[in-house]
Design goal:
Strand order of the largest sheet: 10-14-15-13-12-11
Oligomer: single chain
Distance between the termini: 42 Å
CATH superfamily of the largest domain: Histidine kinase-like ATPase, C-terminal domain
Number of domains: 5
Structural class: alpha/beta
Radius of gyration: 33 Å
CATH class of the largest domain: Alpha Beta
Helix content: 40-55%
Length: 688
């Protein structure tokens, strides 16, 4: 395949367009006009020249026309009108859209018919980024230092060569090759040579150990510097978010400013641009649903210009993006009405839903409180991207709001999925890795420390009972776990506000690992987020803390082994509520499961005896036999007792929950706290 002659041209043009857009926004905010216009004029001139080199005549002419537009304002005397700023931004949008189609042997670049305020980031933008000179200089300095340390090992090699010569002399002495010496003389001579050999070996060992330590230290810094080069500052996405805020505000007829901070935090490019796409939805949602019209803000004694504050902060291996607006906040009553209107729950369940739990519904796919469809809202596409992005990059999301005052949406992601500081643990003779940031502590757990109830095990950690499971059981090595029923070590993991203790054989320490995704042919492997190579070149699995915590909440073990043994079985949903049956069927079928429905426990038992199911999802309050009776009946049936049961009910008291678990339910989910992600997590942990 021929090389793409326009690849570097596209990269250069995108950088120029980013500069043009940033400058236009600076002008709109009242930036130093003479300086900004001069910079924009140089961008246009550079673009014109680059386009002519690659024979893109139309783009060169458009850049020349842009120079003509900017020229009257270069001295700063004549203010830049709003129409010129709009024209400049339209040029950026049209060129960005058309640039994507510019490949080898295509016709000259033509403007796109419709502007695109957030052009898609192409792979080449992720693979090719500008590097700060000081960062490269720092890396080169460390490479030179590492090279010097490696060269220093030569002295250790010389010392070893001397020791080898002495060893050869000793071998001659004890081999009796010098027959003219008496036995006593030879032994004395051999003793002296052996002492000299020991001294030389000690000296060589010290030199090599010192050189190795210095070289390892230097190479560690080199790795850190090289890794940092592929990380991008969070400020890289600020301009795109500011542009999206501006365009959304114009469309809504409101005044909004985006204030950003913490842009020095650095992330992997793929992570950062996925976060950018999620935050584009967040700021547009803030403008469409949050920021009031100027007249309304004046009546509420708020500044006429609304404010969205995006703060970025790195905590360990995670980066937190907190987006806060000073708008009207989330109307929890409207959220509850929307949940009822969309069949997610009935009116009674919605009324019983706590405010904080109701707010989390805004993350559900297709959820919107706006009935009218506009260019910015009403289609239910938006904040679900935030939750999906958080899940994809092993983080989390949450929303908080005060009616009439503010809304805060937080998105947490890992800095990078390619390099992590890991906690190494041993289970059954094998070594596994866990992200160090997910470890809260360690325990020593004996049989007397384990609390057993409802088919589950728990231990006390800081005066709180948390789920416990031996790692060997979760990985499908129950025999290894049962063979050592004495005290064991346990790592306390946290993820998404939940905790669990995972039993292990030994803690081995920490290490920085380069994580690679599993081969596509391996398919999805439960509990595993990637793999690395150890010093001997053997694969070492990095386990997913969130998945491990999910697995500890099930009464069934051997998660990986079970997944490998069977394909997805069918699920039987039993509920007398049509709305609940339809909702659960939709969620499960969208996740790829085959679903059968039953309107009563009696019908459910009849179907269960006619077909093999992998899971029962059952209500509690039903006419005739209730859910507790259904669970007890299936636990007593030899053919059904191994099928896990998830109870989904509006009965949320501790007594009702414990009654369900004691009856043999694998999970107990309260409808008032219903979350489809949580339901699917439990199901995947139980049956894959």
């Amino acid at each position: 395949m021929a090389k793409d002659p326009y690849r570097y041209f596209r990269i250069e043009v995108r950088e120029i367009l980013d500069g043009l857009a940033k400058g236009a926004l600076e002008l709109e905010k009242g930036g130093a006009q003479k300086e900004v216009v001069g910079r924009l004029f140089r961008y246009a001139h550079t673009l014109k020249g680059a386009a002519r080199v690659v024979k893109q005549v139309e783009l060169a002419d458009a850049a020349h026309a842009l120079e003509d537009v900017l020229s009257p304002h270069r001295d700063g005397a004549l203010p830049v009108p709003r129409e010129t700023i709009d024209k400049l931004l339209r040029f950026v949008d049209e060129t960005n859209s058309a640039l994507a189609s510019l490949v080898a042997e295509t016709p000259p670049l033509a403007p796109a018919p419709e502007p695109s305020p957030a052009p898609e980031v192409k792979t080449e933008q992720l693979e090719t980024v500008r590097i700060e000179i000081q960062e490269m200089d720092a890396l080169l300095d460390q490479v030179l230092q590492a090279s010097a340390q490696v060269n220093g090992l030569a002295s250790g090699e010389a010392a070893l060569a001397e020791a080898q010569q002495v060893a050869f002399a000793l071998l001659e002495e004890v081999s009796g090759r010098r027959a003219n010496r008496s036995l006593a003389s030879s032994l004395e001579r051999a003793r002296a040579i052996a002492e000299e050999l020991r001294e030389k070996l000690d000296r060589a060992g010290r030199r090599l150990a010192q050189g190795r330590d210095q070289a390892e230290s230097a190479m560690k810094v080199v790795r850190e510097r090289a890794h940092r080069l592929r990380l991008l500052p969070a400020s890289t996405i600020f301009d795109a978010l500011e542009r999206a805020t501006r365009d959304a505000a114009l469309a809504q007829g409101v005044r909004v400013e985006l204030v950003s901070s913490g842009g020095d935090s650095r992330l992997d490019g793929h992570v950062l641009f996925a976060v950018r796409d999620a935050l584009l939805h967040v700021v547009r949602n803030a403008v469409a649903h949050g920021i009031e019209a100027p007249a309304d803000r004046a009546r509420l004694a708020k500044p006429a210009t609304g404010r969205i504050h995006l703060h970025v902060e790195q905590r360990g291996q995670q980066v937190i993006f907190a987006c806060r607006d000073d708008g009207r906040g989330i109307d929890v009553k409207a959220v509850r009405r929307a949940a009822v209107d969309r069949g997610l729950m009935n009116a009674a369940e919605a009324a019983a839903l706590p405010d904080h739990a109701a707010m989390q519904l805004v993350f559900l796919p297709g959820f919107s409180t706006t009935k009218e469809v506009t260019g910015l809202s009403g289609r239910g596409v938006g904040l679900d991207v935030v939750r999906e992005t958080a899940h994809r990059f092993k983080g989390g999301s949450e929303v908080r709001s005060e009616l009439g005052r503010m809304t805060l949406i937080q998105l947490r992601v890992l800095v990078s999925l390619s390099s992590l500081v890991a906690l190494l643990v041993e289970i059954g003779g094998a070594v596994f890795a866990l992200p160090l940031d997910s470890a809260s502590g360690a325990l020593r757990v004996g049989n007397k420390d384990i609390i057993r109830a409802g088919g589950r095990e728990s231990v006390l950690y800081r005066d709180t009972a948390i789920p416990f499971a031996p790692m060997a059981r979760l990985l499908g090595h129950e025999d290894a776990s049962e063979a050592r029923r004495g005290a064991c070590s346990a790592v306390v993991l946290h993820a998404g506000g939940r905790m669990a203790a995972i039993g292990i054989d030994r803690l081995l320490g920490t290490s920085e690992l380069v994580i690679k995704p599993l081969p596509e042919l391996a398919g999805p492997v439960p509990l595993v987020m990637g793999a690395s190579l150890d010093a001997d070149g053997n694969a070492q699995l990095m386990l997913d803390p969130a998945a491990l915590i999910d697995a500890t909440n099930t009464a069934r073990g051997s998660v990986i082994a079970a997944e490998m043994r069977r394909s997805r079985p069918a699920i039987l949903v039993i509920d007398d509520s049509l709305t609940t049956r339809m909702l659960e069927q939709s969620i499960l079928e969208s996740a790829g499961y085959e679903v059968d429905l039953a309107t009563s426990a009696e019908e459910g038992l009849e179907k269960a005896r006619q077909r093999t199911y992998g899971l029962f999802v059952c209500d509690v309050e039903m006419p005739g036999m209730d859910g507790y009776g259904f669970v007890k009946t299936t636990r007593a049936d030899p053919t059904l007792r191994e099928v896990p049961v998830i109870m989904v009910t509006s009965l949320g008291s501790t007594e009702h929950r414990q009654r369900g678990l004691d009856a043999g339910a694998s999970e107990y989910i309260v409808k008032g706290e219903f979350d489809q992600g949580r339901l699917l997590h439990h199901i995947r942990a139980l049956i894959g």
